[in-house]
Amino acid sequence: MNNKTTYISSIILVIVLLILPFVLPEYPLHLFALCGIWIILVLSLCLLQGYIGELSMGHAAFFGIGAYSSVFMTMFGGFSFWAALPLSGIVAMIFGYLIGLVALRLRGPYFAIVTLGFAEIIRMVLVNWKDVSGGPDGIIGIPPPDSIWLPLIGQISFAGKIASYFLIYIFVAVTVYVVYRIVKSLMGYAVVSVREDLDYAECVGINTTRWKRFIFSISAFFAGLAGSLFAHYVHFISPYSFGVSESFDLVIMIIVGGTGTIIGPIIGAVLLTLLPELLHAIKDFRMLIYGAILVVIIMYAPGGIAGLLKSFSNRYFPNLTTKKGI
Amino acid sequence: MELLKIENLVKHFGGVAAVDGLSLEVRQGEILGLIGPNGSGKTTVFNLIRGVHDPTEGHIYLGGKELHGKKSHEIVKMGVASTFQGLRHFSKISVFDNIMVGCHCRTAASLWFSFWRAVLKTKLAQKEQTETKEKALKLIDFLGLTPYREELAENIPQFMQRRLDIGIALATEPSLLLLDEPAAGLNPTETIELDNLINRIRKEKEITVLLIEHDMKLVMGVCERIIVLNYGKKIAEGTPNEIQENQEVVEAYLGKENADLVTFE
Amino acid sequence: MILQQLVNTVILGSNYALMAIGLTIVFGILGIVNLAHGEMFMVGAFVAFFIVAILKGNFFLALLGAMVAIAVLGVILERATFRKLRGGAEVNYFILSMGLLIVIQNAALLLFGTDPHSMSLPAAAQVIDLGVVMLTTQRLIIVATAVIIIFALHFFIKYTRMGMSMRGVEQDFEGAQTVGISINKVASFTFALSGALAGAAGALMGSLYIVQSTMGFSPLIKAFTVVVLGGLGSIMGAIVGGLILAAAEIFGGVYISSGYQEAFSFIILIIALSIKPSGLFGKK
Fold first, then answer.
1. Same domain as A171, residue A195
2. Domain residues of chain C, as ranges?
3. Residue A127 forms contact with C (CB below 8 Å)
4. pLDDT, tens digit, for every residue of A169-189?
5. Closest by CA position to C121, among listed C169, C174, C63
6. ipTM of this model?
7. What's the pLDDT tens digit per position in C78-134?
8. Chains B/C: 3 or more C-beta pairs closer than 8 A?
9. How far is C-alpha A241 from the geometric centre of its chain's CA atoms?
10. Which CATH number fits domain C2-275: 1.25.40, 1.10.3470, 3.30.2450, 3.30.160?
11. Alpha-carbon distance C171 to B60, whole Å?
């Protein structure tokens, strides 16, 4: 998409997002808010998949680490949510860095199983370490973010859905912005080179190992951030929200939405958050349908929905070339 | 004054010695040719210099510092850049972006440092980005690639892609440039342009050039000194004239290739 | 006590090996990581259960039935889906198999519910007491069967024409075609073999424990771990890896902590891959 189209659609999108909470009833609004959290999570996985080129089967673990860290810090450590939020991201990032030390030396199925292994180990720790994590029953009664005072608006309480919605989408914007800045800055060249041709990038002076670790850590950071937002939004967490099944869901979102773009995973996240609601009547068939969609997409449209849109626009607007494709 | 020094270099692949006790020097500021029949170990030598393989035995020094055993990206930072046989670059991004990737290793060293500067769009970060962009544009101009600047690398003509490969290597600001068969697939006119380019690289950028080539016209025309390899060993060394008269060299080639290819005139 | 644990290790390890070999040959020969392997295992267990409980057949009939049924399933999957992705990125196979996993598992959930079923085999109640070691007849049958199947597979690959074709494709995918080997036939056959092994493992494990629609996931992860530990594509690696993993789980579970039993397999995997990234017997 060329710049003009992007600007216009972005502005329309922002206006819609601003109006939504005042227009929608509570339950759909709740869905949108949740969707925002998935978007952050999926974008973080997208960084990993898009620039390191590997599929992590344990990404939900960072989500969980962020969630649990935030809960510990606020409920047992006396921290304010606003301190716990970035710190949770950092905790997840540290785990990401450490896991990356092993996992990033591997490719393909080896990478996948090791990320899965780490995720399972973390989940098992959370399930078994009852004193700290509350075990399989999880932790309830997680407080919403502390209310803050903003100029012109006054005191904002996050007990309600509307404020939470805005909080979440502000962070969606932050995530998109940070990813955008990484790609647009000089770092973007290093990161793209790692994606395009790892071995050649090495020979052009790019320390690919370091950059892969960087991407992996940032990816974990945002997943952790999403975890913190999630915990203080749904007020309850358990190890079962952060398992392999959830990691699979993320992979489905990315593939169905479309890899190699920023808009793709967002489409995937929206679709997979809204679909269960639309399919409420046939709830039991939900996962079956997801699986079937995944099979169909990978066989006939491996670029996902975003890929379909791209080829669609290329057919009708053949002069639009992708530069430094995000 | 030697820039690159190779001492008793040996490289085994399985049971075969691709490089078998090679010693040579590349002098500062020269254009040195490395020739020899197919399989004589030339590209392996390049791969050993640029850190793609580690030597089985022997040493490689750049300006006195050890090169062998270091990782490829470190070697590039130390000042050795190279092109690969055939065409190798980032096909799916533009010419400009390709060159910018090459420039990257000369920008802000510390990773975490540059992350914050980039995200917060600090003045320093923006300044560096503008300066790097200008460097890249100048280099693109030097190579005559300006009309293709925004094109995807895979869409430009082959001989321009060859220049792009050289350009990416030059973007890393090397003191030594290794070119692996840059004339392959070029017609005579393009080869003459290549000859000029290599001379300009040496003269205007003060870069030492080490060149693997099969195109004898180019080699004899642009190189000041030539080293001949066969079976992983050095069999001759000297000026183009001396090499042309060297019986052993002629035999090494005649055994495997057409006599015509060995006409040096 | 230790002897008993060792015997348990061999029993568990032979099962893991059986699962893992099926997974590893598909990777070694076709470059496909088949995440749906665990679901094939589960379907095999259900087939065996069906034969024993509904058709009132004996265990060996059930075993054979499971092997044949899942071999057929494997061929169907290969022809209908995996074949279409040939020539594309390896990761596409991975994603496809993930989708198949989800489809098959959820189809089973819908058809059979979550109820556990037991095969109630008479041999499972017969206990052989050797003093220091105790096992049931069924467990003995399981080890013996697994060993026989593995040997049969070994002979097959080494001495039959199809076996040689499979090895040819494994060594050089493109080259094999130029010498007249039909990739399609080899691919179908590999999946058939892989399916037969998964079906056998399903019947064996199902007879040991319970048959349930969710039973496929955990063995898949373990098989995957074994395969990666032993080196993708290596049958010997799958056997050795299976035994190592079984040992880690059993001894770790007994001597350290049973809650983290599954974690031990992963820990061993992570340590092994840190040292040798291509697995114990891996090639690259």
1. yes
2. 2-275
3. yes
4. 999 999 988 888 888 888 888
5. C63
6. 0.88
7. 999 998 888 877 888 989 999 999 999 999 998 888 888 887 777 777 777 777 777
8. no
9. 14
10. 1.10.3470
11. 36
